Amino acid sequence: MVVVIAIAGCGRKPAPRSSASLRVLTYNVYVGNPDVAGTARLIERIDADVVVMQETTPAFADEVRRRLGDRYPYMEFHVGPLGNGPGVLARSAPSTAHYAPSTIGMNGVWVGTFGMGGRAVQIVDVHLHPTLPKSTNPIDVASEYRRAEAVRVAQLDELRAVLDPAVPAVLIGDFNALPGSPTLVRLRELGWSDGLAGSAAATEPTYQLRGLGFHIDHILVPTGVACNAPAIVREGTSDHVPVTATLAWR
What CATH superfamily classification does 2-249 receive? Predict the structure, then answer.
């Protein structure tokens, strides 16, 4: 695995925000995105405090550094075996940060610790194993989804192993799993709840494939963390759309 880390900053200062909350954004920017510059502009307009991305490439990272370096002094990108990986932008640097590749699935996990309301919270950039059917036959698709779900559930033990159990963790990203899937059921059993539940964004599609929409990008919060004003932003040239919310202590 090749790791690329960039810490940038100086020049124009972003407008300050209350430290009592964190506005977060998750966006699978799509490794084949035809408009990297437009994607960077979209991230800039959403204006979150912490941005976690999936499927970033070195070319995408270069464009984001050039366009958003002043707004986000902290930037970190990783490149996995398939030439893409997680990317993180933040207004303030996390006190701790690390990336752990997966030994089970295709993608690893990034974890950073941020301050919120005088306390620490872990923000976890999640990209669980994808469903990769070999054909469009519904039986083949369903079979591959079940197989991939078994991989995703197994990845949850890897994920938990890299977290600090003493610090609440918010899981945010592309889970490749539907709301009622074994993956999401298992996460609820482990203490995380759907931050979008009860909102208009709870069941809206976040991913498009051959004209069909699926809700597979999630913000999962632990007990004690509120997920306010969740929203799905229907813009961009990725096969996913951005999902955003404001986190605060309950």
Answer: Endonuclease/exonuclease/phosphatase (3.60.10.10)
Confidence of residue 246 (pLDDT cuts 50, 70, 90): very high
Contact 187, 160 (CB under 8 A): no
Q: What pTM value is reported for the model?
A: 0.91
- The average confidence (pLDDT) of the chain is 91
Around Cβ 88, how many Cβ atoms within 10 Å? 24
Q: How confident is the model at residue 140 (pLDDT cuts 50, 70, 90)?
A: confident
Query: Per-residue pLDDT tens for 152-190?
Result: 999 999 999 999 999 999 999 999 999 999 999 999 999
Where do the domains of the chain lie? 2-249
Burial class of residue 133, CB neighbours in 10 A (0-12, 13-18, 19+): middle
For 190-214, give the secondary structure using H, E and C: CCEEECCCCCCCCCCCCEEECCEEE
Ordered alpha helix ranges (H), 26-78:
36-46, 58-68
What CA–CA distances, in Å, run from 237 to 38, 45, 46?
8, 15, 15
Long-range contacts formed by 209-214: CB under 8 A, 24+ apart: 209/239, 210/136, 214/178
Q: Which residue from 121, 11, 125, 3 is spatially nearest to 66, judged by alpha carbons?
A: 11
